[in-house]
């Protein structure tokens, strides 16, 4: 495909279907609910939708454990509802991206059921190993969801590898038959008209030969031997050459622990195998590698992550811009301030929406949903959270352990979208599958629709500006005052246009700073979080965008 650039002008909205909108009253979000809300998504200015998995699945990892790749789960509305959604998306001039989870399947997938019984050709579809002496596991790797990465299977009499939950056995991508299956899945959805894939932990698909012990990593033991493994580029190239190149589609790869330099091996526009990468550095301004190792929020760390990716991909590739998704707690609760919810939500929006790349908005982010804080650990649903809690240090008090979950669990951001102040936040007329955040009477879409100064309407304005200005889509990025721990200031420049973005992360008034070469007296203030504010003092979490043209 020559000059494929449509995805560069887009803004995506991520739907985590279980909690988006229930259309049939059974308490679980579904595609009928999505159909009802397509106009809402469009009204944000979003023109792409990424669906977290909606395939048949036992739900051990909320759909990331797939039991059938070429169908849609009946609880989401099945194929019929999906086709209606796809049409609805396309009718509105929007695009639809599916989640492609092929590092692992569900243990309930037919392939696994046959593999464990050594039924050909499935025998080597997964990574099976006999026990070592005395029944020991094949190596010392740990799963990403806590506990060893190996599970003994009585049926086959061997261990299988699972880098995630026990019910998510890893596929053996070294087997050409497995790669053919992946290609078949891709073709199936692309032929139906889907516009691309978000490829789940795709950098994990090739494991080092011999599956050696890991003596390097204290956490995620084993990762050096499977992240960016020996054949990953070769396999991705094969998918591209045999399938993706024949369609006008976009691919984005989820990549834990990836540097911009390493990312370019995948996404360099000259010779990469995929279009964009979802990196984690922007998620590590208040933790070390994972939300489970929290630290104090550091704006400087966030700025460094942002700028690193902006500078290093310039002219060579294209960034995914995001602050939230279904795998992390809510961003205002993390990087902003719940006390200044609306203000800090706006500053966070401005901090990333005016960078160069394709922005993603996660359901509920646009109305400033906050972390969910249940009263008991038993209320959690997520497999990772539950395992973490079971393994967490019982020397800590009950209260400390619960607080850790509030702070780190993905469930903090998986509660139903708050549509209005009616019962269950308007998410369902039935009994919701999961808890609704108690703050829904105050924080909900309907209330923000009515308020011209709401975060929701601010997102609309910011996205509309992004779409209307060439400099936001194409201008080069430069960061200013990088040592400031309270201000994030960056500019964008292209022929004929210049943009300056100023975001305060301070919870009190601070002095505005303007870089040399930008004369505010002749710049146009095109977006601001605090109406009427234009002097050189910034209010708590104030943000402004100036344009010269
Ligand atoms: C990705 C998904 C996450 C899932 C994991 C295993 O990180 O985003 O939700 O649990 O992969 O599939
Ligand atoms: Ca439903």
Which key phrases capture this entry?
Oligo-1,6-glucosidase, domain 2; binds alpha-D-glucopyranose; eight-stranded parallel sheet; TIM Barrel; binds calcium ion; 14 helices; globular; 549 residues; 3 domains; five-stranded antiparallel sheet; alpha/beta
Please provide a brief summary of the model.
The protein has 549 residues and is α/β, with parallel strands linked by helices. The protein has helices at 31-43, 78-91, 110-115, 176-192, 232-242, 260-267, 299-313, 331-335, 341-353, 383-391, 398-408, 445-450, 455-468, 470-474, and strands at residues 12-15, 48-51, 95-100, 128-129, 150-153, 158-161, 196-199, 250-254, 276-278, 287-288, 290-294, 320-321, 358-362, 476-480, 487-494, 497-504, 510-511, 524-528, 537-538, 543-548.
General description of the model:
This protein is an alpha/beta fold. The chain folds into 3 domains: 2-105 and 175-459, TIM Barrel; 110-161, Alpha-Beta Complex (Oligo-1,6-glucosidase, domain 2); 473-548, Immunoglobulin-like. It has 14 helices and 20 strands. The chain has helices at 31-43, 78-91, 110-115, 176-192, 232-242, 260-267, 299-313, 331-335, 341-353, 383-391, 398-408, 445-450, 455-468, 470-474, and strands at 12-15, 48-51, 95-100, 128-129, 150-153, 158-161, 196-199, 250-254, 276-278, 287-288, 290-294, 320-321, 358-362, 476-480, 487-494, 497-504, 510-511, 524-528, 537-538, 543-548. The strands form 5 sheets. It has an 8-stranded parallel β-sheet, with helices on one face. A 5-stranded antiparallel β-sheet has the order 14-15-16-20-18. β15 and β16 (497-504) form a beta hairpin. The longest helix has 17 residues, at 176-192. It is globular, with a radius of gyration of 23 Å. Residues 61, 64, 101, 164, 200-201, 254, 326-327 line the site of alpha-D-glucopyranose. Calcium ion binds next to loops.
């Amino acid at each position: 495909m020559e000059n494929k650039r449509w995805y560069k002008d887009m803004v995506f909205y991520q739907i985590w279907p279980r909690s988006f909108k229930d259309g049939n009253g059974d308490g679980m979000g579904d595609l009928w609910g999505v159909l009802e809300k397509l106009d809402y998504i469009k009204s944000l200015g979003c023109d792409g939708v990424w669906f977290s998995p909606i395939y048949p699945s036992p739900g051990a990892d909320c759909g990331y454990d797939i039991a059938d790749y070429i169908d849609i789960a009946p609880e989401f509305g099945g194929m019929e509802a999906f086709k209606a959604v796809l049409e609805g998306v396309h009718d509105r001039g929007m695009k639809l991206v599916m989640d492609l989870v092929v590092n692992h399947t569900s243990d309930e997938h037919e392939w696994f059921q046959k593999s464990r019984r050594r039924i050909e050709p499935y025998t080597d579809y997964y990574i099976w190993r006999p026990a070592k002496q005395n029944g020991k596991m094949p190596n010392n790797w740990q799963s990403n969801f806590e506990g060893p990465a190996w599970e003994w299977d009585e049926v086959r009499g061997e261990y299988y590898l699972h880098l995630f939950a026990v019910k998510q056995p890893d596929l053996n991508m070294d087997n050409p038959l497995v790669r053919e299956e992946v290609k078949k899945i891709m073709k199936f959805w692309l032929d139906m008209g889907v516009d691309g894939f978000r490829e789940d932990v795709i950098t994990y698909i090739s494991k080092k030969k011999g599956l050696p012990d890991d003596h390097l990593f204290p956490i995620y033991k084993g990762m050096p031997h499977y992240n960016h493994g020996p054949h990953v580029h070769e396999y991705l190239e094969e998918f591209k050459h045999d399938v993706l190149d024949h369609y006008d589609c976009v691919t984005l790869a989820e990549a834990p622990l990836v540097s911009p330099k390493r990312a370019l091996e995948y996404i360099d526009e000259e010779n990469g195998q995929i279009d964009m990468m979802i990196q984690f550095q922007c998620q590590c301004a208040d933790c070390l590698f994972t939300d489970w190792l929290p630290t104090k929020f550091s704006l400087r760390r966030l700025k460094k992550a942002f700028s690193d990716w902006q500078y290093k991909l310039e002219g060579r590739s294209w960034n995914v811009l995001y602050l939230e998704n279904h795998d992390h707690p809510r961003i205002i609760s993390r990087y902003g301030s719940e006390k200044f919810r609306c203000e800090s939500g706006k500053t966070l929006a401005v901090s990333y929406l005016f960078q160069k790349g394709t922005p993603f908005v996660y359901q509920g982010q646009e109305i400033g949903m906050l972390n969910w804080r249940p009263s008991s650990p038993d209320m959690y649903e997520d497999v990772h959270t539950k395992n973490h809690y079971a393994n967490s240090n019982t020397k800590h008090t009950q209260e400390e352990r619960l607080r850790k979950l509030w702070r780190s669990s993905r469930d903090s951001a998986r509660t139903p979208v708050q549509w209005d102040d009616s019962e269950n936040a308007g998410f369902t007329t039935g009994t919701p599958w999961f808890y609704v955040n108690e703050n829904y009477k105050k924080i909900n879409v309907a209330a923000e629709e009515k308020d011209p100064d709401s975060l929701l309407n601010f997102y609309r304005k910011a996205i509309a500006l992004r779409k209307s200005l060439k400099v936001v889509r194409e201008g080069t990025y430069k960061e200013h005052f990088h040592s400031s721990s309270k201000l994030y200031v960056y500019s964008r420049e292209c022929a004929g246009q210049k943009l300056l973005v100023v975001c305060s992360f301070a919870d009190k008034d601070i002095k505005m700073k303007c870089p040399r070469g930008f004369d505010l007296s002749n710049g146009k203030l095109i977006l601001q979080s605090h109406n009427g504010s234009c002097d050189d003092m910034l209010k708590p979490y104030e943000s402004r965008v100036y344009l010269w043209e």
